Please model this.
Amino acid sequence: MRKLTSILIMICLIICGYEILSESETIMNAVSYSFNIWINNIFPSLFPFFVLSEILINYGFIELVGELFKPIFEKLFKINGNASFVFIMSMLSGFPSNAKYTKELYLQNKLTEKEATKILMFSHFSNPLFILGTISVSFLEDKKLGLIILISHYISNVIIGLIFRNYNPSQITNDKFSLKKAILSMHNKRINNNKRFGSIITNSLINTINTLLLILGVITTFLIITTIIDNNFHLSLLNKTFISGFLEMTQGLKHVSLLNISKIYKSLLICMIISFGGLSVHTQILSIISDTKIKYKPFLLARLIHVIISCLICFVLLYIWLYYSKFSPI
Model:
């Protein structure tokens, strides 16, 4: 069985190599497209947050938000208050930053293996600028629909956190909200940090560039795979949409915008695609946490649930919006 697997893998690789050589122009266009996505969307949105997050970690921001949000996160999600840093930063920057922030806190012993696995499950947020900008303006040409998708996508993450609140629960301290204690914790972290500012900046830049290059490589690989599939299988646009969305999110969203269906169905498909993230995003997350003990399977389960919950919320919000705005869903 293992020999057969090795043979099949080699056959697939040879076919891919042949396609890259024989359809070089199409493949190069796919690679150029991935670079454009990375340069125009991913790099500008993630670079400042990745650099800022490492600086904040070194200057006690985790200790500050951890103390401030500890009562909320312990009561709602039964998780260490430090996980609030991952949750908040992921909301602002989008995936796969949640994996990067989770890994950093795990390596600094701010989160245990179980806590890191748990927060990874409900911190899968698409970048808000991507939803409100690219999706709503470029794909749907309606900012209100983008806002509905954003709300559905974000609320469903909170619901997932509540569903799995008893999964690997952290030890509850029952500490009360204390701004003084939070500021003191942040101050002590800064005072006890022996790293110089120049060293902190340099390390944050190196780590950020390495992570962003990894993301670029994964996106390019999956776009090449979807291009090879398009070249060899005469699929309908709807089938291309589902396959591309499953493999690489951005390509799938592009196909959704080309479908001849109403905007309400486009919005539901988009909500489904960004909630799952595509295998490209899953591969990025797996690559980031590969050298840790953080588990991936709970994250995958949460994404399947995420798809269902976000689509249901989006469906309800769309029809409420349509009802009060007196528009037809078709």
